[in-house]
Amino acid sequence: xxxxxxxxxxxxxxxxxxxxxxxxxxxxxxxxxxxxxxxxxxxxxxxxxxxxxxxxxxxxxxxxxxxxxxxxxxxxxxxxxxxxxxxxxxxxxxxxxxxxxxxxxxxxxxxxxxxxxxxxxxxxxxxxxxxxxxxxxxxxxxxxxxxxxxxxxxxxxxxxxxxxxxxxxxxxxxxxxxxxxxxxxxxxxxxxxxxxxxxxxxxxxxxxxxxxxxxxxxxxxxxxxxxxxxxxxxxxxxxxxxxxxxxxxxxxxxxxxxxxxxxxxxxxxxxxxxxxxxxxxxxxxxxxxxxxxxxxxxxxxxxxxxxxxx
Length: 310
Ligand SMILES: NC(=O)c1ccc[n+]([C@@H]2O[C@H](COP(=O)([O-])OP(=O)(O)OC[C@H]3O[C@@H](n4cnc5c(N)ncnc54)[C@H](O)[C@@H]3O)[C@@H](O)[C@H]2O)c1
Prior knowledge:
Blueprint: E1 9-12, H1 18-29, E2 33-37, H2 51-62, E3 67-70, H3 77-91, E4 96-99, H4 114-142, E5 145-150, H5 162-182, E6 187-195, H6 204-215, H7 221-228, H8 237-244, E7 255-259, E8 262-265, H9 284-290
Helix pairs in contact: 1-2, 1-8, 3-4, 4-5, 6-7
Bound molecules: nicotinamide-adenine-dinucleotide (NAD).
């Protein structure tokens, strides 16, 4: 088997740690030349450190690959242009963009500040837009390109971080829309929702928290074991690399899930059942009567009301 990404040039954002790190190393292992973007921030987006990106560049070079570091934040629109252009300047083109950069600012909606909302939306959703926007300019000219956006299963709805759930759902919508705009130029855009033990998902605080919840009878042994035995981030890159190959030219606008050895694909969102009023506009009373017996049959409330806590 040859190197499947030989002669290709890639940008991986958030490539200094966790899943991004593994993706950068893997793409380089498949022959891609890589811009390793990472400002080296903390889990909640604070600070700055050039070490994480530098270490990955050094590791890629040690393994015989080609890489260059970039420390810009994907949040900054002008900086995103620099990130993408640095790939074209250094390697002559950009074939692959993997948007991985991410932070967390977890809070229930009734406690969330505007700053916490903006910070998460900025890195995940705006950052993905910013880099994709500049990559699409070059990929459209090249009439070739692959964009892979890292979303999360949280896009379906989540508890404790509505900012994150909204950003990741936004990334799914963005992915599907870029796919529809750019497909004609031979540019595909797909998303991958991973599950992997990183500092984002399984740091010491998370481990202690889940153990306490288990001891308090709030989570089952199965749930505890599933979290503590979460597969590592090294399982995520193969599907990303596959989507970046020439062979995946006709896979566009899809959302995949990657967790350990399991790779799956989400279904297309489709309307299922409908009710019609032939003449005039529905009255609310009519809907109170008809909806439960028709299109709401079988729908499950993800969070039914609970008695007030004392
Ligand atoms: N770990 C999981 O189980 C999981 C699940 C679903 C989705 N994800 C997503 O995968 C991605 C990577 O997460 P991870 O678990 O590897 O976390 P991580 O914290 O280990 O890595 C995130 C990286 O993104 C970088 N980053 C943060 N802000 C940035 C910015 N403004 N510009 C560029 N880089 C920035 C950080 O410096 C860090 O190196 C995130 O988008 C996350 O939401 C992770």
